[in-house]
Specification:
Layout: H1 2-19, H2 33-53, H3 58-68, H4 81-98, H5 106-152, E1 155-161, E2 166-170, H6 196-206, E3 211-218, E4 224-234, E5 237-244, H7 246-261, E6 265-270, H8 281-287, H9 291-294, H10 305-309, H11 312-323, E7 325-333, E8 339-350, E9 356-365, H12 367-389, E10 393-398, H13 409-415, H14 419-422, H15 433-437, H16 440-451, E11 453-461, E12 467-478, E13 484-493, H17 495-565, H18 567-571, H19 573-605, E14 611-614, H20 615-625, H21 627-632, E15 636-640, E16 646-649, H22 651-667, E17 676-683, E18 687-694, H23 724-734, E19 738-744, E20 748-756
Parallel strand pairs: 15-17
Antiparallel strand pairs: 1-2, 1-5, 3-4, 4-5, 6-9, 7-8, 8-9, 10-13, 11-12, 12-13, 14-16, 17-18, 18-20, 19-20
Helix pairs in contact: 1-2, 1-4, 3-5, 4-5, 17-19, 19-23, 20-22, 22-23
């Protein structure tokens, strides 16, 4: 009977619900009928169970608690007080209406009606009380949200009346203006809003239109701040929400400036249809279009006809819309029609409602990279062909565990395996059994992994079992992250070289013996040459010394002879000429003996003490020595010694060098001009270089290599023995230096004396 009762009650409620006669039914009308049936049936079952079991409102209390906690199928915001009253009235009316057909006594019927009426009265009161609690919670939440916004969010809330006066102002955003709550109260938009955009938009909002705009405001310190303003018309005025966006706008401007300044990337925006609406300097530099030429054009202008016919630009936009972004590489066109290899990334832009608002496109010129990749590909192909064609070396790759992964022609020739026989096998197959037992192949890989490479020589095994002497180089290969990905192995057959080395070793032993014998002979020869050289030096010294006395005697006897002949004899022309020739011959003989003496001294003087010599002081000393020669020839001596005014050398030898160079510069003067001798000096880490330049007669090209030979003279009209430059050269070379000469006949000569510093010798 109870089941039938619930069934009929349920059907009656469904009929009322489907008719939509009560406001509460609006959320039930949208549900399927079977869902409504189950829901109403459960409701009646719960009510009647509460009444029968004497636990009134037990199920209702649970449902109200779920509803208050937001866990009920009925949303907290779906009901009003009117709805609660209506629900309880509907169910109570249906139940009481059904009692007309219920068979019981009048007393029982009255008691049941009273119980049901009390039940639904209490249910209504509980529902209304729960609703009020929820409303209070919502209001508290709203108050907390508003308080949080005003105290934490940089927003300013204002109310403006119809007369344009601010009647209320609050919010944390006032801090950026240096103001507090209601500091702006009684401000007039017509007198105190100095920026025109605020006045215009306030007037528009007062006319009944909601507005959103960026406006300026001046802080108490005088700083201009920018705000995003939202003005909403309400009764008797407008409510304004203003958010300080100064930093955001500045950041956007910096970002825009950054985008505009990027020159290596073309960065621009597209409309949802693909039309260009922004353009940076990088785009202008890359594609050749100025902003005024390209804004408003479709971006397919950068694609060739083949891609346009395939609708590839449209396909890019579709894929970017579908996946958020799309990246592609290929040839693109510049304004002048030339092509370049580009990488392009298109990113779709959506608003907060997920509506497509456009795209950004970033393009890079990868022509150089493409060319480099193509060169690398060709290089790899050539390298692969080269490796495969090498026949004198076994070159192959190993997996990290030592398994053979490649095989070249040289490996086949040296080791005897075809490629299909050896690929996939462990490289230890090439080692002797002894080496395998020692795990030497594995040791080689470990060492190559630790040190980057491993090199070894020893016996290796061919396919036929024969051995050969090999040089092996194993190199570890890593990827860009440093992970070991394998090894390369290069093997050379050194069998013949090993045989040759052993043969050469035997030959070297014989040769060393012969060299030792020859060295001993050479040492004896050098010793003999030194003895001969010493004898020659002694001879020159002795000869020059022994000849001095006879020459002096001859000179004295000739003087005595002419004194005996008297002065009358000198009036005789023939006798006077003879005397002059004898005097000249004796003088030349004396000069020759003097030069021979100087030559003999050179080798001995090379061991004299080296000291720090001042060049300018030394040159002044030489100028005094040859002052008659300088005066007689009206010569000029110029020197610039800033770089190396002091040189470590044997003072007497350095003076001899300077003396001969300056003297020769004057002696071999040009008859057409006064002689000028310039002396300069430069210095570096290893050498001091003295340069002596004159404007004299110069030297013929064919004679330059001979001027340093002993007794060589190339100008007969100038007196001299021809040993001066020989002596200079010997002094310089004994000191480990070098003298060079450059000369142009008729213009002059340049002598460069290069002297090593310290113990460094010139090579």
């Amino acid at each position: 009977m109870l089941e039938n009762y619930i069934e009929e009650l349920t059907q009656n409620v469904i009929v009322i619900t489907k008719n939509g006669k009560f406001p509460v039914c609006r959320f039930l009308i949208q549900l399927p009928e079977e869902t409504i049936y189950e829901k109403i049936r459960r409701e009646f079952e719960d009510i009647l169970q509460d009444i029968i079991q004497g636990t009134p409102h037990n199920s209702l209390t649970k449902k109200i608690d779920l509803w208050k906690a937001g866990k009920s199928p009925i949303s907290r915001k779906d009901l009003t007080i009117s709805d609660i009253n209506s629900v309880n009235h509907i169910i109570k009316t249906v139940i009481l209406d059904f009692l007309k057909f219920y068979e019981c006594s009048k007393i029982e019927l009255i008691a049941l009606v009273k119980e049901i009426t009390d039940y639904f009265q209490t249910s209504t009161e509980m529902g209304i009380y729960a609703f009020e609690e929820i409303q209070n919670e919502v209001q508290i939440d709203r108050d907390e949200i508003i308080h949080g916004i005003l105290t934490n969010v940089p927003v300013i809330i204002t109310r403006i009346n119809q007369e344009g006066e601010i009647t209320y102002s609050a919010g944390k955003g006032l801090e950026s203006l240096g103001r507090k709550e209601n500091d702006l109260k009684n401000f007039s938009i017509y007198h105190d809003f100095i920026f025109p955009e605020n006045i215009e938009n306030s007037k528009l909002a007062l006319s009944g239109k909601s507005v959103s705009y960026i406006g300026r405001s001046r802080s108490l310190s005088g700083e201009i701040r920018e705000f995003q303003n939202y003005f909403i018309p309400v009764n008797n005025g407008i409510i304004g929400f203003s958010i300080d966006v100064t930093e955001r706008i500045e950041a956007e401007e910096r970002f825009r400036s950054f985008i505009d300044a990027v020159k290596d990337y073309a960065i621009f925006k597209l409309s949802p249809e693909g039309y260009i609406n922004s353009w940076n300097e990088g785009a202008e530099a890359l594609k050749g279009y100025k902003k005024s030429e390209i804004i408003g054009k479709h971006f397919s202008i950068f694609y060739d006809n083949e891609l346009k016919e395939k609708h590839f630009p449209e396909y890019e936009l579709e894929q970017a819309t579908l996946h958020g972004r799309f990246e592609a590489e290929g040839f693109r066109l510049k304004k002048d029609g030339s092509r370049f290899w580009a990488n392009g990334i298109i990113t779709a832009l959506f608003d907060k409602n997920n509506n497509l608002v456009g795209f950004t496109k970033i393009t890079r010129n990868l022509t150089e990279r493409k060319l480099a990749e193509e060169r690398l590909r060709r290089s790899e192909e050539r390298f692969r062909s080269l490796i495969e064609g090498v026949k004198d070396y076994a070159i192959f790759l190993l997996e990290p565990n030592g398994t053979i992964a490649s095989w070249n022609e040289g490996a086949k020739r040296i080791k005897g395996y075809n490629e299909d026989e050896i690929i996939g096998k462990h490289f230890s197959v090439f080692y002797t059994e002894e080496k395998k037992k020692q795990k030497y192949p594995e040791y080689e890989l470990v060492q190559a992994g630790i040190h980057g490479k491993f090199e070894d020589e020893g016996l290796r095994v061919r396919k036929d079992g024969s051995t050969f002497y090999a040089n092996v180089l194993i190199t570890a290969l890593h990827d860009t992250s440093g992970k070991l990905i394998g090894f390369s192995k290069i093997t050379r057959d050194l069998t013949e070289r090993k045989f040759l080395e052993e043969s050469l070793q035997s030959m070297n032993t014989d040769l060393e013996n012969k060299v030792k014998e020859r060295t001993d002979e050479l040492l004896k020869t050098i010793k003999e040459l030194k003895r001969i050289n010493n004898d020659l030096d002694n001879f020159i010294y002795t000869a020059s010394h022994d000849l001095k006395a006879p020459i002096s005697n001859i000179e004295g006897l000739i003087s005595n002879l002419f004194e005996e002949l008297g002065e009358q004899s000198l009036l005789n022309v023939d006798l006077r000429d003879i005397k002059e020739m004898i005097d000249i011959s004796v003088e030349k003989f004396q000069i020759t003996i003097k030069d021979l003496t100087e030559i003999a001294k050179i080798q001995k003087e090379s061991l004299e003490t080296v000291e720090l010599v001042g060049l300018s002081e030394l040159i002044d000393d030489v100028k005094i020595t040859i002052s008659d020669q300088i005066s007689r020839n009206n010569a000029e001596i110029i020197y610039h010694l800033e770089d190396c005014n002091e040189i470590k050398f044997v003072r007497k030898n350095l003076k001899s060098i300077i003396y001969n160079l300056i003297s020769n510069g004057i002696k071999y003067r040009s008859p057409e001009r006064n002689p000028i001798v310039k002396i300069m000096c430069s210095s570096d880490e290893y050498y001091n270089t003295i340069i002596c330049q004159d404007n004299g007669l110069g030297i013929k090209a064919e004679n330059i290599d001979k001027i340093f030979n002993m007794f060589k003279r190339f100008h007969d009209h100038v007196e001299g023995s021809g040993v001066g430059l020989y002596i200079v050269k010997r002094i310089i070379e004994n000191a480990g230096g070098r003298i060079d000469v450059e000369s142009v006949e008729g213009e002059g000569s340049i002598f460069k004396v290069i002297l090593p510093k310290g113990e460094f010798e010139l090579h």
